[in-house]
């Protein structure tokens, strides 16, 4: 590309009619990458960066009054050396950018060097001359697209409508626009940029020959220039990269008059419409690059040498557990040491007549005895024997089932008692964890149809409902209720009160509650037909849980129910006598010596029950053996966890205070209380971590609450602090 301006050739002039009559001015450009002249849109409203007065447009035209301006005003040169700075340039253009120089040389003036001309970009153009010169064709050389703009006049100002790209054309002329009645190019309907409130369909242009198309493109590039005045724009402090071209802008709103519509700014019908796809693709590439960089950074941080370098682990903290494992490896206590430890508590006169035994279950060695083979009243400590028999004979997962079957008459149902005394009459108020509910049974029966009559069948048990030597006063006192196979909450009147009063007819009361909830009359005793259809069924908690519950709260009714289940399991009569026989049979079958043991119930409520303390420690010692070599040990292990914890649970929750405080949490034992009788049997872990088994039975008329029981607690606590090796 030559450095000096080029004038039109004859061949070029032949392509445009009417151009020869008007002066033609050429503007050269340094390279195909930097256009020599643009009429852009941006920064029209920006203030000039200096106090230099506005310059006139580099586009010149002849008039009758004289020659056009050369690009300089007020005595300033119209062009400068290519290395000099110019104050009026691109909006945002770097400081030090070059001007385009004059568009035509004045007479007697040298031509401007255009080799350093910078890209004009979004240069603001205003038209502000006293008299508008005639439009002068301007030829812009170059083989690449040139940005162009449409300028509309408005008094002494103009409006730049849009900047776009010129298709590859050698020349772009600014010809004089038709005047008068001839419709100008600006008055033609627009095609690509409809107004916001009106968007007409794009006009289809028929294909034309190449030469004719070039002429139309030249005509499309023609701009009406009534008044031209350049408003200098501030430059930025840095130079724009050589090949960076500003984004074309559209719809730059400036004052405009004399036109009803914005002129068509399209230079070629084949020019592709702008879209944002390249921008979106570019943004996507940037995001991917950022993610890749973050990944590399993370890999470098996590997988680099810094991640491999780790400090050696800190030394493990020294742990000194307060609770030591109970093991046979702990120092074995001696009989002399145990006697010395018990010497003080044994001197308490409140104990009265005391029998008992202390055994090391690890080796079966007796450590202390006091009438251990002499039968004594065990009271509720007898439950240890019933619980052991149940764990040795019954399936621990077995459940007690209560059913309702179809009666002999239509609308009649029969409740068949299945031996579960823990059914909850009021949900949320039961003392038996995991108990079934009466409401569940009622709802099942309701789904089968209306009920007009309710009967209850208590034939599962036989014999007397109260045990030998049981007193009626014990029912109201809350100790017991008649033993029947169907009742609610163990016969309690207040379902949540463990020691509350019981009812004397628990079966009738439970059946009436069932009938009332079905809307039937009061229930009556009856017998379920053989093979009758089952209308509803509920089940108790598993046997193992029932055993645990009866030991924790020392429930006499539940214990007697379990004794009868043992009787049924072993083929004995489900009665008091049958239950006692079944317990003895099971214990004797498993090798326990029942010599001197005589009992008439399974709960220990009868004062006529007599057993030696040794029998209790024998059963507990097997359950507490350190290994499971003995099959009985595995079966009896739940017996230990069913024992109340000193100061923590069950009947021992409020005990072990004062002198017995050291045994709190370390003693687990079953209590027994009758008139003038108190007992305590269980296990304790001494300070050396050795498990000891004990049984103490006291016959004393002293106050049980304040004297006898605390004295028994002190004995067990002394074994805890023994260290009797």
Automatic annotation (TrEMBL):
<keyword id="KW-0812">Transmembrane</keyword>
<feature type="compositionally biased region" description="Basic and acidic residues">
    <location>
        <begin position="227"/>
        <end position="238"/>
    </location>
</feature>
<dbReference type="GO" id="GO:0000270">
    <property type="term" value="P:peptidoglycan metabolic process"/>
</dbReference>
<keyword id="KW-0472">Membrane</keyword>
<feature type="compositionally biased region" description="Polar residues">
    <location>
        <begin position="117"/>
        <end position="127"/>
    </location>
</feature>
<comment type="similarity">
    <text>Belongs to the peptidase S13 family.</text>
</comment>
<keyword id="KW-1133">Transmembrane helix</keyword>
<dbReference type="Pfam" id="PF02113">
    <property type="entry name" value="Peptidase_S13"/>
</dbReference>
<feature type="compositionally biased region" description="Polar residues">
    <location>
        <begin position="16"/>
        <end position="34"/>
    </location>
</feature>
<protein>
    <submittedName>
        <fullName>D-alanyl-D-alanine carboxypeptidase / D-alanyl-D-alanine-endopeptidase (Penicillin-binding protein 4)</fullName>
    </submittedName>
</protein>
<keyword id="KW-0378">Hydrolase</keyword>
<keyword id="KW-0645">Protease</keyword>
<feature type="compositionally biased region" description="Acidic residues">
    <location>
        <begin position="1"/>
        <end position="15"/>
    </location>
</feature>
<dbReference type="InterPro" id="IPR000667">
    <property type="entry name" value="Peptidase_S13"/>
</dbReference>
<feature type="compositionally biased region" description="Basic and acidic residues">
    <location>
        <begin position="189"/>
        <end position="202"/>
    </location>
</feature>
<feature type="region of interest" description="Disordered">
    <location>
        <begin position="1"/>
        <end position="273"/>
    </location>
</feature>
<dbReference type="GO" id="GO:0004185">
    <property type="term" value="F:serine-type carboxypeptidase activity"/>
</dbReference>
<feature type="transmembrane region" description="Helical">
    <location>
        <begin position="279"/>
        <end position="300"/>
    </location>
</feature>
<dbReference type="GO" id="GO:0006508">
    <property type="term" value="P:proteolysis"/>
</dbReference>
<feature type="compositionally biased region" description="Basic and acidic residues">
    <location>
        <begin position="264"/>
        <end position="273"/>
    </location>
</feature>
<keyword id="KW-0121">Carboxypeptidase</keyword>
<dbReference type="InterPro" id="IPR012338">
    <property type="entry name" value="Beta-lactam/transpept-like"/>
</dbReference>
């Amino acid at each position: 590309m030559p450095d000096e301006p080029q004038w039109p050739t004859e061949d070029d002039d032949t392509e445009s009619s009417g151009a020869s009559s008007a002066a033609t001015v050429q503007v050269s450009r340094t390279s195909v990458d930097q256009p020599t002249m643009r009429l852009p849109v941006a920064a029209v409203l920006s203030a000039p960066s200096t106090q230099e007065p506005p310059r006139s447009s580099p586009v010149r035209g002849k008039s009758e009054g004289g020659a056009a301006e050369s690009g300089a005003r007020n005595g300033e040169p119209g062009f400068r050396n290519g290395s000099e700075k110019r104050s009026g340039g691109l909006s945002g253009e770097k400081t030090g950018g070059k001007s385009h120089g004059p568009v035509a040389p004045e007479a007697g003036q040298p031509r401007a060097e255009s080799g350093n001309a910078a890209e004009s970009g979004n240069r603001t153009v205003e038209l502000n001359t006293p008299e508008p010169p005639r439009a002068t064709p301007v030829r812009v050389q170059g083989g690449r697209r040139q940005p162009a703009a449409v300028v509309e006049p408005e008094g002494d100002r103009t409006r730049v409508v849009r900047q776009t790209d010129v298709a590859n054309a050698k020349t772009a002329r600014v010809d004089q626009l038709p005047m008068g009645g001839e419709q100008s190019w600006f008055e033609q309907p627009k095609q690509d940029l409809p107004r916001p409130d009106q968007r007409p369909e794009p006009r289809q242009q028929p294909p034309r020959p190449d030469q004719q198309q070039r002429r139309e493109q030249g005509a499309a590039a023609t701009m009406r220039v009534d008044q031209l005045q350049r408003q200098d724009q501030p430059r930025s402090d840095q130079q724009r990269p050589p090949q960076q071209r500003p984004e074309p802008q559209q719809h730059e709103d400036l004052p405009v008059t004399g036109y009803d519509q914005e002129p068509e700014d399209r230079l070629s019908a084949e020019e592709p419409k702008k879209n944002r796809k390249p921008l979106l693709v570019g943004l996507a590439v940037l995001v991917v690059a950022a993610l890749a960089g973050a990944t590399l950074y993370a890999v470098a941080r996590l997988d680099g040498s810094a991640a491999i370098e780790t400090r050696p682990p800190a030394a493990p903290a020294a742990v000194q557990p307060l609770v030591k494992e109970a093991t046979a490896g702990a120092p074995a206590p001696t009989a002399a040491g145990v006697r010395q430890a018990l010497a003080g508590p044994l001197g308490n006169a409140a104990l009265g007549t005391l029998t008992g035994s202390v055994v090391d279950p690890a080796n079966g060695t007796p450590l202390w005895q006091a009438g251990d083979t002499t039968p004594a009243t065990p009271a509720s400590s007898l439950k240890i024997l019933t619980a052991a028999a149940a764990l040795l004979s019954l399936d621990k997962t077995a459940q007690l089932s209560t059913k309702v079957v179809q009666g002999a008459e239509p609308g009649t149902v029969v409740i068949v008692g299945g031996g579960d005394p823990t059914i909850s009459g009021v949900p949320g108020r039961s003392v038996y964890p995991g108990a079934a509910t009466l409401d569940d049974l009622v709802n099942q029966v309701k789904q089968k149809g209306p009920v007009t009559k309710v009967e209850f069948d208590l034939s599962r048990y036989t014999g007397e409902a109260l045990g030998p030597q049981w007193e009626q006063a014990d029912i109201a006192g809350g100790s017991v209720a008649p033993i029947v196979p169907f009742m609610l909450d163990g016969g309690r009147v207040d379902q949540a009160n463990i020691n509350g009063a019981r009812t004397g007819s628990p079966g009738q009361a439970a059946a009436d509650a069932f009938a009332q909830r079905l809307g039937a009359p009061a229930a009556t005793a009856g017998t379920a037909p053989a093979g009758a259809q089952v209308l509803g069924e509920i089940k108790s908690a598993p046997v193992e849980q029932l055993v645990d519950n009866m030991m924790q709260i020392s429930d006499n009714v539940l214990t007697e129910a379990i004794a009868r289940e043992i009787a049924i399991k072993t083929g004995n009569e489900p009665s008091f006598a049958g239950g006692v026989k079944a317990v003895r049979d099971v214990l004797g079958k498993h090798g326990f010596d029942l010599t001197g043991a005589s009992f008439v119930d399974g709960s220990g409520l009868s004062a006529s029950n007599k057993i030696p303390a040794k029998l209790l420690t024998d059963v507990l010692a097997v359950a507490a053996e350190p290994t499971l070599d003995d099959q009985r040990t595995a079966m009896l292990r739940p017996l230990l966890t069913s024992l109340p914890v000193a100061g923590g649970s069950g009947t021992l929750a409020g005990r072990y205070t004062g002198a017995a405080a050291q045994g709190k949490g370390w003693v687990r034992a079953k209590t027994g209380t009758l008139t003038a009788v108190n007992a305590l049997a269980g296990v304790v872990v001494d300070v050396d971590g050795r498990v000891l088994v004990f049984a103490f039975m006291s016959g004393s008329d002293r106050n049980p609450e304040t004297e006898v029981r605390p004295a028994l607690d002190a004995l067990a606590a002394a074994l805890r602090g023994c260290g009797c090796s």
